[in-house]
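lol forgot to send this yesterday, sorry. struct tokens for the thing we talked abt
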């Protein structure tokens, strides 16, 4: 009896309790389950009674699966804020030490108004136990080597296993990649150095940036309509504009959010449903991609974190090519202004949208396929030397264009065209967690879902007069007349003009017919 009285009470972790509950759910008799796990019937009943609490804790990941008690922390709001921050950092595979967590806890405690909180080693140990966090002491050199090694291993493992399973049931036509990029759409060559490396988390430059979402398939046969995110919901330059070569949305930071990305996903899903297609969509794990809606026709596959530079096709040259084409068009506009008496005007959002879309549609199929091959997702086929020679020709022309503009606008000699193209590569494209957002119940200073007013960044731009359909038809005729005086104009150019002329004539004819019918009915 004495031994029975001194028997140490056994404690069960959350993981063990869930295994007991799952054993009962599998159809086993309660008595057999109790014997299997060495517990009394009353303990089993307690587990079953508290199952909702266990499931909620697992679902919210608010406690580690090995934790045996579910007591709340003394400073519960600090605990929740630090854990929310830790989850964001952990999702990016950033190495975090105990001292970093303690410093962050002190910062958040000060923001919450706790002057007497001490982020002691004891607090850190309890925090780790509550959330099942394992921290390892790694020196800086070993850390870099470890992360580099893990990256290579991750890429090889993904190529050898997961990607093969993902693409097994899909043809290259039905395998897509989507990714965002930031664009300083008003950037001029002489301002390249100031923009280089700017993350643009807000401030004045937020008015000069856009975020663009692009998506294309592995065969290069389908490039989806771009989604452009700006800062102003109703810019003056888009007044009376009902058709754009892309979708346009806005919020005050001009970046991608979960709501905008999910809206775009649902539209693509509906499109695939109408076409009776099923596709595989490969995306990275940026904050805007973390909580996806229920999709019927899209299977989403996540690229391994910290490996998108070598695994994401859009990052391997497709987006870069789009930016080369966009910046080239900007240079041509600058050169035209320099050789005329007109003042250099800033590019507005409407012009930027048109140029970004035109650059996107101009990216060649061969470029797209080559980048998918570089990512190792589709088989590599040797490109012909003729294609490489043809690709080098526009590069030479662009370099000449750059030298002309750079000389005229006094661009520093150390800045080259590639610097101009990549000046906005470091722009943040999606909402990242900041300290004011990890504190429960605390309102952030600014709401990221609200767009800027229509006046911001647009007041200095003159409103464009509305063009009538008659004026549009006349412009096409003038363009045709001008081209007829040029030498060596490709037939395709005249074909495109014919298509525009035909569309406008059909539209004006239908308008006249409808007005005549209305007049006739009114006289009856």
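and heres what i got for the seq, position by position
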């Amino acid at each position: 009896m004495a031994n029975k009285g001194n028997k140490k009470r056994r404690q069960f972790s959350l993981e063990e309790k869930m295994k007991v509950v799952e054993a009962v759910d599998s159809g086993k008799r309660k008595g057999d389950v109790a014997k299997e796990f060495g517990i009394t019937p009353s303990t089993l009943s307690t587990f079953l009674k508290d199952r909702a609490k266990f499931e909620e804790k697992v679902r919210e990941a608010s406690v580690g699966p090995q934790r045996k008690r579910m007591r709340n922390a003394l400073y519960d709001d600090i605990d929740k804020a630090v854990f929310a921050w830790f989850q964001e950092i952990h999702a990016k595979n950033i190495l975090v030490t105990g001292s970093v967590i303690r410093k962050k806890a002190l910062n958040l405690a000060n923001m919450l108004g706790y002057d007497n909180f001490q982020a002691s080693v004891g607090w850190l140990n309890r925090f780790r136990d509550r959330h099942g966090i394992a921290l390892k002491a790694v020196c800086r050199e070993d850390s870099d080597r470890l992360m580099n090694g893990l990256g290579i291993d991750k890429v090889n493992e993904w190529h050898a296993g997961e990607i093969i399973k993902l693409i097994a049931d899909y043809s290259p036509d039905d395998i897509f990649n989507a990714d965002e990029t930031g664009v300083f759409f008003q950037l001029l060559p002489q301002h390249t150095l100031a923009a280089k490396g700017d993350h643009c988390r807000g401030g004045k430059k937020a008015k000069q940036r856009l975020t663009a979402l692009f998506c294309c398939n592995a065969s290069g046969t389908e490039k989806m309509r771009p989604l452009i995110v700006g800062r102003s919901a109703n810019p003056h330059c888009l007044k009376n504009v009902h058709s754009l070569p892309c979708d346009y949305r806005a919020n005050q930071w001009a970046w991608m959010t979960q709501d905008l990305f999910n809206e775009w996903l649902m539209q693509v899903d509906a499109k695939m449903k109408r076409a009776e297609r099923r596709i595989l969509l490969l995306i990275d794990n940026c904050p805007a991609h973390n909580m996806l809606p229920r999709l019927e026709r899209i299977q989403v596959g996540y690229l391994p974190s910290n490996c998108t530079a070598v695994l994401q096709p859009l990052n391997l040259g497709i987006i870069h090519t789009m930016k080369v084409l966009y910046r080239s068009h900007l240079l041509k506009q600058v050169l035209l202004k320099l050789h005329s008496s007109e003042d250099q005007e800033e590019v507005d959002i409407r012009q930027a949208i048109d140029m970004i879309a035109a650059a996107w549609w101009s990216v060649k199929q061969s470029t797209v396929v080559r980048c998918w091959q570089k990512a190792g997702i589709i088989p590599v086929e040797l490109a012909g030397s003729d294609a490489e020679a043809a690709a080098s020709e526009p590069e030479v022309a662009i370099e000449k264009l750059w030298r002309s503009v750079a000389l005229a606008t006094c661009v520093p000699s150390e800045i080259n065209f590639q610097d101009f193209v990549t000046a906005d590569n470091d722009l943040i494209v999606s909402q990242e967690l900041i300290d004011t957002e990890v504190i429960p119940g605390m309102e952030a200073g600014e709401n990221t879902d609200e767009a800027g007013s229509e006046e911001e960044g647009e007041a200095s731009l003159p409103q464009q007069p509305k063009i009538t359909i008659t004026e549009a038809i006349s412009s096409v005729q003038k363009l045709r007349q001008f081209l007829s005086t040029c030498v060596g104009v490709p037939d395709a150019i005249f074909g495109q003009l014919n298509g525009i002329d035909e569309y406008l004539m059909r539209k004006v004819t239908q308008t006249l017919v409808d007005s005549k019918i209305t007049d006739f009915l009114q006289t009856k």
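The two ends are 110 Å apart (CA to CA). anyway ping me if u want another try
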